[in-house]
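Input (structure):
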């Protein structure tokens, strides 16, 4: 049994009052660690530490020096990738192949944005005012609260933290109560990399105390959140009371659209990747499969064949394709949506029930599930399930595909499978989503912006423009003439 303390001002410390809570391995169903149960007092200590760092060594450090620290951190991420991945698998039950790929990759965010740190520039503005020199400065917002989810804790933290650090901010992180361990382990790397104390702080606990206290704290300038649209709306509402900046990366109900001219084998694999990879527990899951009617029958035959062959089992085993659902509430939610779909009249052609897996004492496995006969107005097609449940909808032509694809409250991502470059370009323009993948799915990079339309969020993460989410612009006016002007007239 391991115990994880909070990480505040460069050191581990127990929570105020010494309370802890258990974290379970979703595969075994057993408690493997105790996590510090943070309080409002701990949040205040963390924010104050971040604020001191901003006013102290970190705030006076050159951008080049900040960037070098970030590059050291990138090297340490790669050095410790295997250990961090093992912790994440133990915590969230996703495949080692998936989490190992993520922890090996996160260093690239810190390396990329570390290189960008001393390339953030203001501008000299040629104004229409004679005798005035005007320029702009790009400055950090201040202390940023980061609230991260349980499905990819360190990757989704990197999307927020790397540009925030490059911009010169400090951070207080509240990871999901279900997957806090890897973030606490990662925080230790900041000390090893040589960051000043207080630049990164981690307070673990629950939304109603730690999360709420962070969002409401008077010294927090911005909240960067990944999670459900309902939680994001509550955070947005509370942040508005203090006019805090926000970045919200929320849910999705992404269409994966297959046209009759697509490479069908590649499209089948893309559909499988879109919904059954990561056990469907991703915001970008291609949970609505839109099939052109002329290919539906043969596509479905091959899709079911491949899905049936997916091996469920120990996520640490390289041969496993589908792991357990991460949390008990999410497991219950997935099963409820399967019942809802059946009640709405959809036809379950694969899976549709919980299952047990040899060697596991856990109980949170759900079979890869496929529904046909789905109408887009059904709840199974409109609401985010966040599990291995696929809704198949057919369409006649491009116009109908676009109409169905856009007819949801979400707009995070979409997939398009076609051999026509013209259709690919038309669809990329017409789909109301933040990311369009053509003949691929689930591709992300530190170089490319990510975010959603509609209820899928606000702002962008990754890519050069994401740094702007953590900066504010100051305009400076300097008179170059000493003659007195009329004080009662605007210049």
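Output (sequence):
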């Amino acid at each position: 049994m391991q115990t994880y303390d909070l990480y505040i001002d460069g050191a581990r410390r127990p929570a105020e009052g010494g309370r802890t809570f258990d974290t379970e391995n979703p595969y075994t169903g057993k408690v493997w660690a105790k996590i510090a149960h943070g309080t409002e007092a701990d949040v205040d200590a963390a924010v104050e530490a971040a604020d001191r760092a901003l006013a102290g060594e970190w705030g006076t450090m050159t951008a080049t020096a900040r960037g070098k620290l970030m590059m050291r951190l990138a090297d340490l991420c790669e050095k410790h990738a295997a250990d961090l991945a093992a912790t994440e698998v133990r915590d969230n039950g996703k495949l080692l192949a998936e989490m190992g790929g993520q922890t090996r990759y996160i260093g690239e965010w810190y390396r990329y944005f570390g290189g960008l740190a001393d390339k953030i520039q203001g501008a000299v503005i040629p104004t229409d005012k004679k005798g005035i020199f005007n320029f702009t400065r790009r400055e950090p917002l201040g202390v940023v609260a980061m609230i991260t989810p349980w499905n990819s804790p360190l990757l989704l933290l990197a999307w927020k933290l790397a540009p925030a650090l490059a911009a010169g901010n400090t951070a207080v992180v509240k990871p999901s109560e279900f997957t806090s361990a890897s973030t606490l382990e990662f925080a230790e790397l900041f000390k090893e990399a040589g960051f000043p104390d207080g630049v990164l702080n981690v307070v673990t606990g629950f939304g109603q105390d730690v999360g709420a206290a962070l969002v409401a704290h008077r010294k927090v300038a911005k909240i960067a959140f990944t999670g459900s649209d309902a939680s994001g709306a509550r955070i947005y509402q509370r942040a508005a009371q203090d006019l805090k900046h926000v970045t919200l990366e929320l849910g999705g109900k992404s269409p994966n659209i297959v046209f009759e001219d697509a490479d069908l084998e590649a499209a089948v694999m893309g559909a499988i990747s879109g919904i059954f990879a990561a056990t469907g527990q991703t915001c970008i899951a291609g949970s609505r499969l839109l099939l052109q009617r002329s290919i539906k029958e043969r596509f479905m035959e091959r899709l079911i064949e491949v899905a049936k062959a997916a091996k469920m089992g120990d996520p640490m085993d390289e041969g496993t394709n589908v792991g357990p659902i991460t949390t008990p509430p999410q497991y219950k939610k997935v099963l409820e949506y399967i019942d809802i779909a059946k009640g709405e009249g959809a036809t379950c052609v694969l899976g549709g029930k919980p299952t047990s897996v040899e060697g596991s004492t856990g109980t949170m496995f759900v079979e890869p599930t496929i529904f046909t006969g789905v109408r887009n107005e059904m709840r199974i097609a409109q609401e985010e399930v966040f599990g291995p449940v696929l809704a198949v909808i057919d369409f006649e032509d491009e116009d109908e595909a676009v109409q169905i694809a856009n007819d949801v409250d979400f707009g995070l991502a979409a997939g398009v499978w076609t051999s026509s470059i013209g259709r690919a370009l038309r669809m990329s323009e017409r789909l109301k989503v933040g990311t369009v993948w053509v003949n691929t799915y689930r591709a992300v990079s530190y170089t490319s912006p990510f975010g959603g339309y509609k209820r899928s969020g606000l702002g962008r993460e990754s890519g050069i423009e994401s740094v702007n989410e953590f900066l504010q612009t100051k305009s400076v006016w300097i008179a170059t003439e000493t003659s007195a002007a009329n004080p009662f007239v605007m210049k």
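Notes: The chain has a mean pLDDT of 96. Residues 272 and 404 are 20 Å apart (CA to CA).
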